[in-house]
# Entry
Amino acid sequence: MAFLELDTHTLHYRIDGEHGTWLMFCNSLGTDLHMWDEQVAALAGHFRILRYDRRGHGESSAPPAPHALADLGADALALMDAFHIERTAFCGLSIGGLVAQWVAINAPQRLSHVVVCASAARIGSEESWRTRALAVAAHGLAPLRAATAERWFGDAFRRDAATRVGQILDSFEATSVPGYLGCCAALGAADLHAQLGQIHVPLLAIAGDDDAVCPPSDLRHIAERTGGALEVLPGRHLVNVESAAGFSAALQRFLL
# Structure
């Protein structure tokens, strides 16, 4: 395993593919870099792919909570700097999509394209994330497994792809509680509605048609405010897993 050592934490990362331009992936809350396995398999022949575990997720360590969205964006920029990446395409899902928007607003010169998936300019409310954090602090993540499965995947996919779903939910349960709580704080405070008009990087928004967390209307709003394109695919919140082939094809059309 490969790690980038920062002042307060380490980031676990992987690089796949040897040719083409850079493409970075940023995972959702409670997942690790393996949520992108299907995209890496489909796209590593066309891009040099950098994916990483967000602080407090997967094999990355967790600095003291709380975290801010700017901290998560700084982690992405630190990885770019470590590998002397002047410009990259950046694809993020859910909180990863917020990171993608933050980088497009605050460091647009570092991005060639931005893909915002199953995300919003604001996800939930400060109160809802505080309530979630209190529950996780008291009881851990295991009690949330069943409800998370329903939010992330449709009924048929949970039945037909039970092994893949189980792997992702195991990763969810294994997430560091301090890391999860830190990111809940970042989500509770993050609101980019007023800054969307500052995004001028070519943008693709991808929504799951049955996603109750970040419905297609949230992604349509981002696309309209930024002059970007919208693609709606079958699936719930982890639409890149549930509609893996269609998702990877949409990325390839947009980026190549």
The CA atoms of residues 37 and 241 lie 9 Å apart.
